[in-house]
Amino acid sequence: MKQSKRLFFALWPDEQVVRKINQHAIKYYSACQGRVVDKNNWHITLAYFGAADVDTLKCLEQHTEKIKAQTFELSLSVCGFWKKPAVAWLAPSSIPDALKQLAYDVQQSIIPCGYKPELRDYQPHVTLVRKAKQMPSVNEIQPIPWLVDKLCLVESITSAQGAHYQVLKSWDFL
Predict the structure, then answer these.
(1) Between 20 and 30 A from 29 (CA), which of 42, 63, 76, 147?
(2) What CATH number is given to the structural domain containing 157?
(3) Residue 137: which domain range?
(4) pLDDT more than 90, % of the chain
């Protein structure tokens, strides 16, 4: 039996971005009355693949190698809440063209590996609270700059303590 891993592609914040979210944003999310996501799991998903065996993992890595992306700046400032799936999030006030292109490129490049692109519009965000019952206490915060310079392939590992995300591989941008 082949062992499978639950995989997704993401932007992973560096320590400085995590520290700024922790210092300047997270305090507004206690109003959500949910479970705050561990700061080591904060990320922006580009494409959720799902279960993948060893051969599929190799396919994903090979196709991702071909993606060419430039470093770009993201500014996280919008606080929000989605009733379903009950998450509170932090997002950029505007989506840079470079981010839209990167998400598109990742999604298109992994189709040969079995990826099924989502039909809804791409909405980049960092999930900060799960099982949230309401909005954060503010709609917007002072922008948190994030210099995005790499793409990550991440495994989602579920245990009794909840989900833990582990970066399996990353690719630096030009």
Answers:
(1) 147
(2) 3.90.1140.10
(3) 5-172
(4) 91
